[in-house]
Amino acid sequence: MEITKFDWFCSGTWKISAKNTAWCLLGCSIGDFGTILFFQLTKIPLPVIFIMILAIINGLITSIILETIVLIKQNLTLNEAFKTALGMSFISMISMELAMNLTDYFLTGGAILTWWVIPLMLTVGFLTPWPYNYWRLKKYGINCH
Predict the structure, then answer these.
(1) What residues contact residue 40 under an 8 Å CB cut-off, 6+ apart?
(2) What is the DSSP letter of 142?
């Protein structure tokens, strides 16, 4: 059996995987930040953990919706686009959401958006799944956009 060495130094693959990760980040952050902002503005008294779980779920939902729309615009059927968005990047989305919310939790106590925590959450949310997205694209040619 021949073992080939995995190439982590392909700039083209890093560029494409960065684009894919950015789309995922946009989708996740819409639902996540929207949920946190809603509870922050309305001051509905819920435990922080509940708000953060709801933010993660909403982030996953909005990311899947956005990715499905992007894939439909690339001429996939609704069913194909939805299955692709759900199946090919769900691990990436979950790791992104957990990283963003843990960053928020450790820096602010959780479920609080401030001008200084948002860029940190986005940075951590981008960097966490990016190597996985690179690996998937390089190893399997699986691209979600």
Answers:
(1) 111, 112, 113
(2) -
Q: Please, which residues have CB within 8 angstroms of residue 51's CB and are 6 or more apart in sequence? A: 35, 36, 39, 110, 111
Each residue's pLDDT tens digit, 1-52: 566 788 999 999 999 999 989 999 999 999 999 999 999 999 999 999 999 9
Q: Are 28 and 96 in contact (CB under 8 A)?
A: yes
Residue appearing with tokens 């950015």: 22
**Degrees, nearest 5: CA angle 99-63-92:** 45
- How many domains does the chain divide into? 1
> What span, in angstroms and rounded, lies between the C-alpha atoms of 97 and 91?
10
Instruction: Note the pTM of the prediction, 2 decimals.
Output: 0.91
The verdict on residue 145 lying in a domain is no
